[in-house]
Design goal:
The protein is an alpha+beta fold and about 120 residues long. It has a single domain, classed as Beta Barrel (OB fold (Dihydrolipoamide Acetyltransferase, E2P)), CATH 2.40.50. Helix content is about 20%, strand content about 40%. The strands form three sheets. It has a five-stranded antiparallel beta sheet, with helices on one face. It has a three-stranded antiparallel beta sheet with strand order 8-9-10, with no helix packed on it. Strand 3 and strand 4 form a beta hairpin.
């Protein structure tokens, strides 16, 4: 009877705990807690740790969204999926957008669209 109940009971989604990344000639496990953000550049996806080290990933951002806990990670735009800890500063920007500064910092400007701004604000509360 217990086994039947367990089969039909709603299960909590299981999110990834770590990723195996390539670092030169070696493979390195990176715990999800170490991830500051992931971003795309020239059709490649990179994982950036809180210490600033950057590693290429084989997953697309769309797939990463399903693998990482949405309570901890948020998709800012088409290029960035960030952890809560990586958001350093948020500024109002032109036309209802938001400008985000990350830790570790990025040279490029990171914007959240007007449509995603209220979703981000709810996520941050």
């Amino acid at each position: 009877m217990q086994q039947l109940l367990e089969q039909f009971a709603p299960t909590q989604p299981r999110y990834r705990q770590r990723f195996l990344v390539t670092a030169g000639e070696q493979l390195l496990p990176v715990a999800v807690e170490e991830i500051a953000y992931c971003f795309t550049q020239h059709e490649l996806v990179y994982l950036v740790r809180h210490d600033g080290r950057k590693f290429p990933l084989e997953h697309k951002l769309e797939k990463l969204e399903t693998l990482l806990d949405p309570a901890v990670f948020f998709r800012l735009n088409r290029q960035y999926l960030v952890s809560l800890k990586a958001i350093d500063k948020i500024y109002p920007y032109f036309a209802g957008k938001l400008k985000i500064e990350l830790r570790p910092p990025r040279a490029e400007e990171i914007l959240v669209s007007r449509d995603r701004t209220p979703i981000l604000k709810r996520w941050l509360e």
